[in-house]
Design the sequence.
């Protein structure tokens, strides 16, 4: 399906537009609603590397289409994330062996144990189950379906599914590379877990899923206060999920810190891929195409960034 032309003319108010006549759904909704946040144009790239990436993705989109280019970009990002996980694992192992940040593991676990009570244990266990292998996929699918339906777009599906799969692969790779032992079962709150401790999958998935959902919501929020609240809610959810794992004695603090760092890195790659997608969509809607991609096409307009 060809991209719809980008126009500033408002549309009649209805279920697919807001009160100002700005499209809310489909490609037009993405180009009108998702390309700016707080006055910042996400399709403007200041760095030379960014402009080179835009050119490469734009050329790929001529063959695969914008969504195909987005998927391919995310796949390349996943490879980068896997390499980052392997490199991070080496650094992590060195830190643990040198007793650097890992020196906090036992004191923080002891502090968590001192706060325990039967009622709090039940509450924290229920909360941490939200970020587990059953709770998180259900939550992600529900939010993904709602966003995709409201926006009439496959973009939320592609972003959330790829983000979740990437974080899962990073978790599996990290556990196999390090194989770190969890805290003793005598220090943990049941139900017990027996897989490797590094990284904390709950913490990594919480950063990635909550982060990408918050990002998609922030793109459509009109006020700075709303954007701050959405970002703060996602950060609080991820922080609480990680600390709950230490409180329950299911992970060491360093497993959670590593998961937060890896999750943030992967989330940044996913957001960057989406920005590239938006840039390509916007240029196609304006009739800008890479020079030499098809007979008779014009060279792209000069980048103003």
Sequence:
């Amino acid at each position: 399906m060809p991209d719809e032309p980008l126009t500033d003319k408002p549309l009649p108010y209805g279920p697919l537009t807001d009160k100002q006549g700005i499209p809310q759904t489909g490609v037009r909704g993405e180009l009108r609603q998702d390309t700016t946040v707080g006055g910042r144009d996400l399709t403007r790239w200041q760095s030379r590397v960014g402009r080179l990436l835009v050119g490469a993705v734009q050329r790929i989109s001529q063959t695969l289409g914008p969504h195909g280019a987005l998927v391919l970009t995310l796949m390349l990002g996943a490879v980068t994330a896997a390499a980052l996980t392997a490199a991070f694992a080496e650094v992590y192992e060195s830190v643990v062996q040198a007793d650097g940040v890992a020196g906090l593991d036992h004191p923080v676990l002891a502090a968590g144990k001192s706060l325990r009570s039967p009622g709090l244990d039940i509450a924290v266990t229920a909360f941490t189950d939200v970020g587990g292998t059953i709770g998180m996929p259900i939550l992600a699918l529900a939010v993904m379906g709602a966003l995709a339906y409201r926006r009439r777009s496959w973009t939320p599906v592609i972003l959330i599914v790829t983000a979740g799969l990437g974080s899962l692969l990073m978790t599996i790779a990290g556990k196999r590379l390090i194989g770190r032992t969890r805290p003793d079962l005598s220090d943990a709150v049941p139900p017990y877990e027996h897989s490797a401790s590094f990284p904390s999958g709950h913490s990594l998935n919480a950063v990635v899923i909550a982060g990408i959902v918050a990002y998609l919501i922030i793109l459509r929020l009109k006020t700075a206060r709303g954007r701050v609240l959405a970002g703060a809610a996602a950060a609080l959810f991820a922080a609480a999920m990680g600390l709950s794992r230490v409180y329950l004695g299911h992970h060491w603090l360093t497993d959670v810190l590593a998961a937060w760092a890896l999750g943030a890195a992967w989330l940044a790659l996913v957001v960057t891929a989406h920005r590239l997608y938006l840039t390509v969509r916007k240029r196609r809607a304006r009739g800008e195409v890479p020079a030499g991609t098809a007979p008779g096409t014009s060279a792209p307009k000069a980048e103003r960034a």
